Amino acid sequence: MFTFEDFVGIVAELRSDHGCPWDREQTFSSLKKCLADETEEVFQAVDNEDMENLCEELGDVLLQVVMNSQIAAEMGAFTIEDVIDGVSRKMVRRHPHVFGDAKVTSPEESLALWNAIKKQEKEAKNQAGKDRGKEGGK
To answer: Can you give the pTM of this predicted structure?
Structure first.
């Protein structure tokens, strides 16, 4: 059975100098339609309650995530490890009722807590952007 690391290596090989010409020429823009199509196919599998197809289509969405991350790594922008680290940190941060001391008693409270934390993150990000703009103007 292949591992996630094997899969990342397969995608890197597909994009290598001796890999697949089609895969090598893909860009973020050229893959947009692929990601949209694969996501729609996930929705259809869910609607049809087709677990075999859902497994396949989730793999196709994962391919899009890894392929885009590989392109970014080639550019020096970020890696798949950065993507995983970022989303892991977000999940821990937005679930203080699981990974911290916060308490919730219902799915609704959990969602409200998630949205409150998300709003705080967005406000902090916006403030950091404004602060960087002020520093650049000095």
So the answer is: 0.88
